[in-house]
């Protein structure tokens, strides 16, 4: 349990006790796992064979499940007063969900409607032999062609003696013979599996008597044959190319397990924030120094996990992300061991958690704070989900995209989280949050005019005010206004508004913008949103403060005119009256 009465050296940040060290390790492992899991979950759905519509449906519904489940997990932690135990259980459930997710079998490939196939043909008198290509299901082809026809176009160049299939004199030199014929399998002694013999049927027989040199001359002819093989021909893609939601076992399992994993990941973030503030005690301004180790973990593990996946898959055509999930499960084991040794208990029990949190949400100032968080979450989502798409349209290399991510973590988030303590001492929490709007305006405006993608590295330096210092200010403010015993619950509510509702709205609007306006116009329009909201939130805050001051003055006037206010006035009079009168009173 955190010692509230810590030495002053702790507040200065020079002394790190055991529990603060555990908090740093916890954040490092927590966001290392997030760097592996969160970006790859949507792609893993495609690996299972789910189409884009199905994955989009899942990713749209899951944030609302998190929005409901996250405060429930926080409320359980507040009720049990065992943050470390609840956090460890959440991590174990997350690990279970990740492992089971890798056990889902992928969907079998389906055929592409109306696809045709070519057959390479060789002529030998009245028998045409073809080698069947691009099929691994020979038995199915044999079955289909028992009663199916194949249409061929045979073109033979002129030989020394020109003979025409048609008796007309104005025929061209090249003979083009169109026939409809049956395809029959050859005996095993004649050709390899997949080799067929094309015999003529009665609808268009080849009259060898009209072309006598076929039996005496080697004639090289080109032929193109096509057939409908809707039930046998596999394609390179799965139902993912379809625009409809395909209900399947894989979709249901993916939805359930993805929801479970995402709820656990999000809840572990909120519980870790609440646990960190519990450790800091009366030094909440040191939160940024602890939280920045999560950024270090994310920045290191994101490229490292990608490298491990590439190395494991280098000797095969497999490009799956299963090995990344196993790596995340291993890190979760370490994190559970760390949390198990973290003897952290909440010091205060609140019997009316829902009532107190509801009272917080009904206050206008706190409601405006949640709206601020929502807008920042929406702006963040537009950038997080579509920046690589936009850079790819500009011709950026994978190296540049990796450098942009590294810039976000190490040159953006890290220094601003470290400086957040100083910024909060010089500015109010709400002003640090508003600084994010200025950062988003400059970032989005810069991307709207971007031509050379390498300038994205400079623009990504604005990740500091848009996320680094903002996140510290958001969690610190939520901690400061939470009634004792409700910290985990209210942290979960605030985080849910940010990365559930806000992120869901931003991803939807950003996707619509990229679809109908393109990346450049989307970023330009998005740059206007934070400026407009900054003006609105300043005016809203000014109005609330003015109304609050008026209500406060009105209550004072009522107390002075109300008999219930007399004791206060009598005390004030006593302080100014002579001693004897005071004794009489």
From TrEMBL:
The keyword Ion transport does not apply. The chain crosses the membrane at residues 25-44, 50-73, 85-104, 247-271, 292-312, 324-344, 365-387, 399-420, 432-450, 493-516, 523-544. It is a multi-pass membrane protein. Pfam families: MFS_1_like. It is found in: Membrane. Keywords: Membrane, Transmembrane, Transmembrane helix. Residues 24-523 form the Major facilitator superfamily associated domain. Residues 555-585 are annotated as: Disordered. InterPro entries: MFS_assoc_dom, MFS_MFSD6, MFS_trans_sf. SUPFAM superfamilies: MFS general substrate transporter (SSF103473). One of its GO terms (cellular component) is membrane. PANTHER family: MAJOR FACILITATOR SUPERFAMILY DOMAIN-CONTAINING PROTEIN 6-LIKE, SUGAR BABY, ISOFORM C. Belongs to the major facilitator superfamily. MFSD6 family. This is Major facilitator superfamily associated domain-containing protein. The lineage of its organism: Eukaryota, Metazoa, Ecdysozoa, Arthropoda, Chelicerata.
